[in-house]
Amino acid sequence: MAVKRLLEVESKFLFNPSLVATLQSNRGHPAFKRLEALHTHTFTDTYYDRRDTLSKNGIWLRQRTTEASMMVEAKVRICGDFSRSTFDEITDWQDITAIIRPHLPEFSTQKKGFGLDLLAEFTTTRQEFRADDQFAVVLDHTDFGHSVGEVELMAEDEKEAHGAIDQFMARYAWFFLKGKAEGKLEAYFRAQSTGHLTGGRGVAITLREEDQTLES
Questions:
Q1: What is the pTM (predicted TM-score) of this model?
Q2: What does the alpha-carbon distance between residue 10 and residue 159 come to, in Å, rounded to a whole number?
Q3: Rounded to whole angstroms, what are the CA distances from 32 to 3, 102, 149, 168?
Q4: pLDDT score recorded for residue 43
């Protein structure tokens, strides 16, 4: 029997920065059954594409760099929208090449920038928590002034996972605020298009909500 791949199922959310201390001390109402503060770290994400080819096909080629490491992955959209999405995360070079080359034959692991164009680059400071023993809660703050939260769950069945995330966020609604949460790339391109980008760098991209999901 084939082993199913675990998918990254996520839901973005708005949060009030004044409640972060309450989250950290687990003194909200109700309190989390269990809350573990993992760590806070900073990384730079660099995205590559050409003529929006990958993004139009729900693929995001990303290089994530920290002080200690560098990782390249292709995130492939399985389903979802701007706020609720499911991705398959590919980190094996052969698999990445197999995914990218049918869309962009010039892709090469031997060339600078993989032979593609720089789409976006920005730095994020991330606070990570594990809540109720299974949900990853992350709070992201970018160098261009945008903040957004995500609840993430690794699962085989995205529908069940989204249902579990919805119940989790409803239970602790004092922290997970209602409203449309804008992902980091979505906010980046909006700031870029309006000339209000104060950090990061990249090229313009045209996005349509009906046919694209922005990776975080």
A1: 0.85
A2: 11
A3: 32, 45, 17, 10
A4: 97
